[in-house]
Amino acid sequence: MPLSYPKGFIVTNCRKTKQMENDLNLKFLALGDSGVGKTCLLNQYVDGKYNGKLAPTVGIDIREKSFQYISEKCSPLKVWEIHLQLWDTAGQERFRSLTSTFFRDAIGFLLVFDLTNENSFLNVRDWITQLQNNAYTTDPDMIIIGNKKDLINERVVDQVRVQQFAQQYNIQYIETSALENINITESMELLLDNVIIRMDKNKDLIKQNPFIKANSSIILTNGNMSNYNNENQKHQHTSYYEKIKLCCN
Question: Mind telling me which SUPFAM superfamilies this protein's record contains (predicted)?
């Protein structure tokens, strides 16, 4: 009997009995100005918790989540075994040139701005330009996220305005609240669907991007890098973290 799942059905902590054909290691980058809520958004998605007292991210922080995912956008339906790395980047100006080092190895991008901060929205255009210049393609999969939807009285960025902006770039837009857990999972599924559709249509993309293949991703354990298959990548990322230490000391 064929599988029947609701749209975006996710099963976490699944036990695998064998290597599945559709196993994917995916790397998503969260980009945006400092203070827009990238860390809170990712924490809410991974842990289901909100902490509003977090200090600004310094350099890069990585969260991971493994689950099975079924997308109705694929025909026929496929069960995808996903290991998702969520890279939380620093939004401060001094880290932006370092952050771009990681663009090319990522397969999806979350462009986050603060609905109560006009400048954070205006800077989304700059983040898009950086992606077009540094990502694995000039047309990478990305979504725009307007965060802090719960702060209705403090909102300064109009929804229609953002939608018109997103349409100019043919990018999907969604509004979230990390505090109240509004549209957090939905935003991830929106990007995940786009990425899976691209990969399902372009099998060569999996061969070209080492982060998609199993056992080729970067794993950080207590701040140390391991599990590399590519020594050049290891050197590049080691250099990055050395630069971060210099910036922060």
Answer: P-loop containing nucleoside triphosphate hydrolases
